[in-house]
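Limitations

Structures in this collection are predictions, not experimental determinations, and the ligand pose is part of the prediction. Treat each record accordingly. The example that follows, with zinc ion as the small molecule, is included so readers can see exactly what is and is not provided: the inputs are given verbatim, and the output is the predicted complex.
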Amino acid sequence: MFLTFDVEPDAPPYQTNSYKGVEKGLPWILDLLDDEDVQATFFTVADLAEKHPDRIKEIVKRGHELASHGYGHVRLDKLSRQEAVSNIRKSVSILSHFSIIKSFRAPNLQPPPITPSDYTSLGITVDSSIAAYKKGRPKHPFAWDSLIVVPATSTSSTIRLPRTLALKYTLPANRDFHALFYHPWEFVEIQKKPLYRPDIWVHTGGYAREMLRTVVREAKKRGLVFHVMNEAPSLVEC
Ligand SMILES: [Zn+2]
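Predicted complex:
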């Protein structure tokens, strides 16, 4: 079981200059994880780390894994191989001031056009850029040459469905592997605006906070063990 958070500006691409998630959602998440005694992985946009270094230090101080979510929250699949490698290299270089960076997730779960050896040259051993819930995508972790790929198993907004459906889609009873991902901005209220997709604002804030606690407690009740992403190479049978 992997619990992960993508630390980025609020509700991209709509609110690129708003950071309520990092200012209010992230401290709440860290307190919840302390209360529940579980560790998580925080895929962080590096330019955000430059703007909010104290928030990022707190993630590391509380014993969680800091990982890369690229630089600038741009679609890396639209870049050339060289441009994508350079974007990730820049992010790893900045985030390395806070902790050793071993894991990566592409913005929008759109993998960049790069190879396992490119990842290795960047010091990345685990990639979590694939969405298992999309049709035809791998559902379980696998080795791709030197890289371990851990697909994300449920899209973040399922946690904001009515409780029974949220649990059914987030932690399906017939599956033993889960890699969940959320965003700090989901745990503060995002105001509905005419152009916003509903999954950006529906049940953000208090409802999402209550449901994240419910999901974590349900996983513990089922005896699932929480790992951070950089442990994946020792967990995946190749
Ligand atoms: Zn993102």
